[in-house]
Design a protein that fits this description.
Layout lengths: L7 E5 L4 H12 L3 E6 L2 H13 L3 E6 L5 H15 L4 E4 L14 H29 L2 E6 L12 H21 L4 E8 L14 H7 L9 H12 L10 E4 L9
Parallel strand pairs: 1-2, 1-4, 2-3, 4-5, 5-6, 6-7
Helix pairs in contact: 1-2, 1-7, 3-4, 4-5
The structure holds NADP nicotinamide-adenine-dinucleotide phosphate.
Length: about 250
């Protein structure tokens, strides 16, 4: 992995799970990390984990569904570290419900948390990257964007929207040397699964060709690679990290 020393990364949803693991991985690669989430205690915990291992990080509290928070997040990044090279727009949440049972508020919540948040993040990140001559963005989609999953219609629609939006962004900003990709995690053991019945994760693991649930670090490695110079010729790509679930017959 090429060194990210002197580079600056924003990671949204970095107070737990995949975002936290990615923030730590960016820190280990040498980047200064802007840890973004709503929960300040958990966000500061992530900062502590990065600095304990010799990295540099700052916490910025933001609700990624609010334009004013995202604008302030990017402003604070530039004030603190003077530039922005990488962004992992990862914050999101997955709730469930059958299509005919969803309320308008349920729909708006899902689209705002998972799709509007990514648009807002890129809206404010891209101009800063344009000014400094380029950058790399990874947005979090999901295997739920690629498969029809009962009870996850709104979530899947939002996550499929993330792939389409990211490809359009790649088309619009390649000439500015900004690479924009998505990562689609399969089942990864995080707080997102906190309310799942205890045996459900075992059942899910049994259906995955690689025979296990993902860990946040599986996704973090892919994200840091997509941002690194090693992926210099990769843009508009959706990297599926799911143990083979969507690609391999089992
Ligand atoms: N785990 C899986 O199996 C899986 C599979 C496919 C895709 N994903 C996607 O991966 C991403 C990370 O999820 P995870 O599994 O790591 O779950 P997680 O541990 O619950 O992390 C979700 C993160 O998003 C943040 N967040 C949620 N809404 C936010 C908002 N409005 N503003 C700011 N931050 C917000 C949370 O922080 P605060 O609560 O502190 O704000 C938290 O840090 C999500 O986009 C999820 O949809 C996960």
């Amino acid at each position: 992995m090429s060194s990210m020393a002197g580079k600056v990364a924003i990671v949204t949803g970095a107070s737990s799970g995949i975002g936290r693991a990615a923030a730590i991985a960016f820190g280990k690669a040498g980047a200064s990390v802007v840890v973004v989430a709503r929960r300040a205690d958990k966000g500061e915990e992530t900062v502590g984990l990065i600095t304990e291992s010799g990295g540099e990080a700052v916490f910025v509290q933001a609700d990624v569904t609010k334009a004013s928070d995202i604008e302030a997040m990017v402003k604070k990044t530039v004030e603190t570290y003077g530039r922005l090279d990488y962004a992992f727009n990862n914050a999101g949440s997955g709730s469930s419900g059958k299509i005919a049972d969803l309320s308008e508020a349920d729909w708006d919540f899902e689209i705002n948390a998972n799709l509007k948040s990514v648009w807002l993040s890129m809206k404010y990140e891209i101009p800063v990257m344009q000014q400094s001559g380029g950058g790399a963005i990874v947005n979090t989609s999901s295997q739920g964007a690629l498969l029809g999953v009962a009870n996850y219609g709104a979530y899947g629609a939002a996550k499929a929207g993330v792939i389409a939006l990211s490809r359009a962004a790649a088309a619009e900003y390649s000439a500015d040397r900004i690479r924009i990709n998505t990562v689609s995690p399969g089942a990864v053991k995080t707080d997102l699964w906190a309310e799942a019945p205890p045996d459900m994760l075992d059942q899910v693991a049994a259906g995955i060709p690689l025979q296990r649930i993902g860990v946040p670090e599986d996704i973090a490695e892919a994200v840091v690679w997509l941002c690194s110079d090693g992926a210099a010729f990769v843009t508009g790509h959706n990297l599926v990290v799911d143990g083979g679930f969507t690609a391999v017959q089992k």
